[in-house]
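Page 37, continued from 36.
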């Protein structure tokens, strides 16, 4: 949509997302707010750019936006929703919108409307909570749940305002980043570049990330890519899971230190513990 090409509008919409309230009331405080497009990895940018990042910036042929090099605050520190909505409304007024009789309208008197397109009815509770906050700004927020075929067709043709999308990242990101962010993938049907990004700087950083000669330069490119994506407000980070929940009989031993990745590697590095099994009243190969 043409109106979403304005980064200030995207930022204003993002400010209205109330993660703390949604996490507490819907998800029992089990989720975390992702502060990065590479959460829980070495590629998540934080604080001020380090020496390796600055060296890479100097070598890039594309101009680097100053906002992307600013200090990123620590994760988990958010202003109150009231403060964020006040800030968002100020930004929207700068773009020419006016709040009249509870409706946020442009210079032609047309109300700003943002439709949530969903394929999973279970995500309606997330969209509804976000929509409630946007409505406080006077924004119309229809929510449309469609079948899988219609959803995929609209996604492939970029016929939507907002969708809920997941990007899966690993601890060694590579060629999949072209599919996520590059100009080459922007207009291709079925792409994971759901925002249709066409940014030369992002293209350059993706190639630096993929073709880096060593891990240190790869990390620097990934952090810079993370900074640019976040500074451009290409999406609203809604949630991430940084823990794995598992129900089990307490009859298995495990190492004191578990791997950083791999879902605690159950059952590959766990073992049957006879002492624990006796306490639970079970024997090898049988359940109590």
């Amino acid at each position: 949509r043409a109106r979403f090409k304005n980064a200030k509008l995207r930022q204003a919409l993002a400010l209205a997302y109330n993660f703390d309230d949604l996490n507490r009331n819907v998800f029992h405080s089990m989720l975390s707010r992702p502060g990065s497009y590479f959460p829980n990895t070495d590629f998540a940018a934080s604080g001020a750019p380090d020496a390796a990042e600055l060296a890479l910036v100097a070598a890039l042929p594309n101009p680097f936006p100053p906002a992307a090099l600013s200090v990123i605050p620590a994760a988990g520190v958010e202003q109150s929703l009231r403060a964020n909505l006040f800030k968002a409304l100020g930004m929207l007024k700068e773009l020419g919108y006016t709040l009249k009789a509870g409706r946020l309208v442009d210079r032609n008197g047309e109300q700003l409307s943002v439709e949530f397109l969903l394929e999973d009815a279970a995500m309606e509770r997330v969209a509804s909570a976000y929509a409630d906050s946007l409505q406080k700004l006077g924004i119309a927020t229809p929510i449309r749940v469609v079948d899988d075929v219609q959803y995929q067709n609209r996604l492939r043709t970029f016929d939507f305002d907002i969708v809920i999308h997941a990007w899966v990242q690993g601890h060694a990101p590579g060629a999949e980043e072209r599919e996520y962010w590059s100009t080459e993938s922007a207009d291709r049907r079925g792409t994971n570049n759901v925002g249709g990004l066409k940014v030369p700087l992002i293209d350059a950083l993706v190639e630096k990330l993929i073709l880096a000669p060593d891990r240190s330069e790869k990390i620097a490119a990934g952090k810079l890519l993370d900074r640019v994506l976040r500074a451009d407000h290409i999406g609203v980070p809604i949630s991430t899971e940084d823990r794995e929940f598992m129900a089990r009989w307490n009859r298995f031993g495990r190492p004191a230190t578990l791997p950083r990745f791999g879902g605690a590697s159950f059952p590959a590095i766990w073992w049957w513990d006879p002492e624990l099994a006796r306490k639970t009243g079970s024997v090898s190969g049988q359940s109590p």
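The chain is about 35% helix and 5% strand. Flag for discussion at group meeting. The first strand starts at residue 98 and ends at 100.
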